[in-house]
## 1
Amino acid sequence: MEFPSNVRYTKDHEWIRLDGDIATVGITDFAQGELGDIVFVDIPTEGETLASEEVFGSVEAVKTVSDLYLPVAGEIVEVNADIDGQPDLVNSDPYGAGWMVRIKVASVADVEALLDVDAYRALVGA
């Protein structure tokens, strides 16, 4: 299981990587492993401004559907079009090609307040 140190994590198993005031968001390797084979990703919120922990979409695996929660407040400026036709990218490369959305964050400090790699590893017992 991968735990990159260049991202921040949430208790809901999303990760966020900041580049200036734009952040890339996805689900963690732990989350995709728990969900199993992802067959569909639905993110209808492009262009919307959402609050922290608000649902921005969902992922459907063979046996379950899970909501996706925005780690911090911001405007969803891009949805990963590649996962539309290839939802399995979330399983095979959750921190790379399987990212979900890019957001313009409302506050960089909110990102820095999320879990670091050590705190997330402790959360999932790794």
Note: Strands lie at 8-9, 14-19, 22-27, 38-42, 49-50, 55-61, 65-69, 74-79, 101-105.
## 2
Amino acid sequence: MLLALFSACKSSTSFPANREWTLTELKFKPVPANVTATIKFDSGQKRYGGKNACNAYSGTYELNGTTLKLGPAMATKMFCADVADWETAFMDMLPTVDNYTHQNGQLRLFAGTKVVAVFK
């Protein structure tokens, strides 16, 4: 019974698509003020994309319950030295995502049981 209660509290019943989410934490590090990274899921096209701190990116996704698989992302190729490390870390995080939670205005992306990104 406790497991059922925990599962019910873990995330809302609908996937948080069709709105832009702003990154607040990446691999347990708070995002600095000079970094803006976003993600948006298009439920009709089954695509995701946004800004990865410097460049625009996009890819496809698959969703089954709270299981989320992000396909390979393509990105523009501008160089932004001041945020290059954040951009690389963000792009490296995307293919590791395999599930999510959506609760209290936050979207959390996980690799297994480890939170890899938090968006608001």
Note: The chain has one domain: 2-119.
## 3
Amino acid sequence: MVKNRKPIIAGNWKMYKTATEAVAFVRNLELSVAGMDDVEVVVCPPFNALVPVVEALRGSRIAVGAQNVHWEDQGAFTGEISPGMLKDAGCRYVIIGHSERRQFFGETDVNVNRKVKAVLQHGLTPVMCVGELIEERESGITEKVVRAQTEAGLAGLTAGQVAGMVIAYEPVWAIGTGKTASDADAQQVIGYIRGLVNQLFGGEVAAQVCIQYGGSVKPQNTASLMAQPDIDGALVGGASLDVESFTGIIKAAAGN
């Protein structure tokens, strides 16, 4: 079956790049990916670089996303940022529930769900991350873990909301380690997630929802990952910090 979902390649820059470096990067990236309209390209800089990056990309097909968000519209939450602030800054996507947020900052499935709902209410697209630890994979409970995270994250959403969002499967043991899930392993879990969406929201929604793979994605392994029937793009970490490597991933996803 031919996939009709447009692949989304998103770069999660984490805590890298000043605003000046970020602007220089996206100007070079825009030239490098010109004409590659078959792929949705997203960059997710740190908060301080969001506005200048949006300005630098005005009129470009490259979208901008944020790496985190709070679920409240406003309030006494020192150090946090609201969905409305991100929308006002020009963001279109928001990464939610990344394993580093879960591991280092106590992100829970309940809070992931709150953030997904808040982002959707403001017309932004959530990129909801799920994935298992190495000990969970070795214990054979990958599907159990991914199911619990996915069900909790999507709780209370409408079919239409789920159809328009992004789910990113990121096995925690593959993030920043150089280890990548095999094409077959990534497809198996992502196919399982799509089947779970089918159970919860129906076949039409399952056919529309974009499900990415993340975890040591590189230009060399992108094409084979994207060739899998249920993998619709990639959430890229370290390789998105270099224009040449990120462009190579985008080209591979576009079939170039």
Note: Residues 183-201 form the longest helix (19 residues).
